[in-house]
Amino acid sequence: MLEAQALTYSVAGQRRVDTVSLSVRPGEVTVVLGPNGAGKSTLLALLSGLLRPDSGQVRIEGRDPARLSARELGTLRAVVEQSPGWQSGLSAAELVMMGGYLAATAADWHTAMQLAHCEEFAARRLETLSGGERQRVHLARALLQLLSSTAPNRYLLLDEPTAALDFGFADAMMADIRLFAAQYGIGVLAVIHDINLALRHADTVLLMANGAGAAFGTTAEVMEKGRLEAIYGVQLAELVSRETPLRAFVPLGHGSAPH
Amino acid sequence: MRLAPLVMLLTAATIVTAVIALCLAPDGDTLQLMPLISGKLSAIDRQLLLELRLPRQLLAFCAGALLAASGAAIQARFQNPLSEPGLVGISGGAALAAAFALQWMLPSPLVSVLAFSGGIGGLLLTWLMSRRAANGERLILAGIAVNAIFGSLLTLRIVTLPDGSLRTITFWLMGSFANADWAQARLFLLLTPPLLALLYREWRLLNALQLGLQSAFHLGFDARGGGLRIVLLAALAASLVVSNCGMVAFIGLMAPHLARQLVGSHARRVLIAAPLLGGWLALLADTAAHALLYPAELPVGVITSLAGAPFFLWLLWKNGKEGGWHA
Fold first, then answer.
1. Exposed site from A99, A111, A255, B45, fewest CB < 10 Å?
2. What is the pLDDT of residue B38?
3. B190-215, pLDDT tens digit by residue?
4. B interface residues, A as partner, C-beta within 8 Å
């Protein structure tokens, strides 16, 4: 399990993350939602071991990331940042291989390329790819990192993995990620902005506002119209599909000004 | 381009350049090619060839290779395509320290240690001045300032000496392989392969660092510790060159760039192609420095700067347009 208990983190006296707790179970997808500036990316950096909390604790499989080496940490979790760096002159395949420097096999590499749908442009240089394609290359790189690890439980942390993707691809990618999580018993934590994607693909949701965790629980529990309206400062209509058990929220206008 | 043909091409080019340069012999006020192949060498020609030309070329090739590898490593570590040992303060610091050490008549190993410390000091100063910089240009601006300060201090020190000559100043600021002897060539032959191998060993980390320090950490690398190791190795390689040959500018910038253009950015290939290219470029520049205005000898830095500075401006322009590293 990847757990956080009462995490607090401040920058220049300002609280970015304020007593947030959550847990990510192997095989499940947890989505972090919240308005811009709610502290979602900072929370992800704390969970990944990049930042250390001022108070509270993070535990990956019961271990404190601060006490693990970068290498040990690399076998337990992989991260795709919001705008991951890249360099022209590298091919997609070469970037994906970086996820396997610790111990990947050729089979792992093929699986990762397949799962992230990167095979068709494997040989192309990164500068010739679209933003969405590069995003998938980075996902494949993170998948390879986890596939090549022998740790029993591993975690995938994604910061806006669907930001550069169109509507259809974003949905397909979240579906793939969910499948991957279930198939390999990998716990996924994804920061996303689209509440309807969360509704469709998340097992659990953490809703954040002003650095604090406003609600954490199963998707059905957390995704309530009134709560979302309060946090986003926007009036919503809840649409329910007749044919499927799907729900969706559509913004109607600002009830109270968002902050 | 694939790596193997490039390696063969560069090896051939290096050999051809070296043979031409080896055979350049003074004939009155001009240079003539010595009849090396026919084997009709006079005793003086043979001495010239073995005692002066050969060590000079070995030194030039090794120095160029070390500067190129050092540049490739520094560019990847700082995710800054515009950096090289001379543009991040290493060369300036190393030159100042080495010039002092030589004046104090310190033994050669101590000169190298001081040059290395000076190189690290120069880099540290540059880095501190450019800290919190949002863009890579600031690192370069700080490096140029640090180099200018060190260059002025060096000049000041030399002109205030009783035997301080313009020639000595030019040697340090523009670099030269003209004073090469076998002791230097042997030292470089001994140290270049292990230094290149140590940098090559870091190819995985150098690749990961191309994505940024954070990504390298996420991939499971000790990015800060490993990055420091890389910087120390790069500084060691560059300081060794500077303390023996002065500041030969721009090879550390040009060679890795050309290498990336030719074989892509994968660090494993760059760390093979760039040293070969750097060695060849240094050899070519040295031959030009020797032969262009014969009997006058140009400092090799004049040639590398004449080629390198426009290259740098082009990179600056291109980098402003599209960027080399994207974080």
1. A255
2. 60
3. 999 999 999 999 999 999 998 888 99
4. 79, 204, 207-208, 210-212, 214-215, 217-223, 260-261, 264-266, 322, 324-327
pLDDT (average), residues B9-27: 86
Q: Rounded to whole angstroms, how far apart are CA atoms B263 and A94?
A: 13
Q: What is the ipTM of this complex?
A: 0.91
Domain positions in chain A are 2-223, 224-259
Helices then strands, each counted (H, E), chain A: 9, 12
Q: Look at residue A28 and tell me whether its pLDDT is greater than 90.
A: yes
Strand, helix or coil at B317?
A: helix
Q: Which of the following CATH numbers is that of domain A2-223: 3.30.300.90, 3.90.1200.10, 3.20.80.10, 3.40.50.300?
A: 3.40.50.300
How far out from the chain centre does Cα B78 lie?
18
Rounded Cα distance between A200 and A57, Å, is: 30
Single-letter amino acid code for the residue at A86: W
Q: Are A240 and A250 in contact (CB under 8 A)?
A: no
- Residue contact A50–B324, C-beta within 8 A: no
pLDDT tens column, A72-89: 999 999 999 988 877 778
In a 10 Å sphere around its CB, with 0-12 CB exposed, 13-18 middle and 19+ buried, how is residue A117 labelled?
middle
Closest CB from A87, A102, A145 relative to B324: A87
Q: What's the CATH class of domain B3-321?
A: mainly alpha
B252-269 confidence digits (pLDDT tens): 999 999 999 899 889 999
**Ranges of H-type helices in A101-212:** 106-115, 131-147, 167-184, 195-201
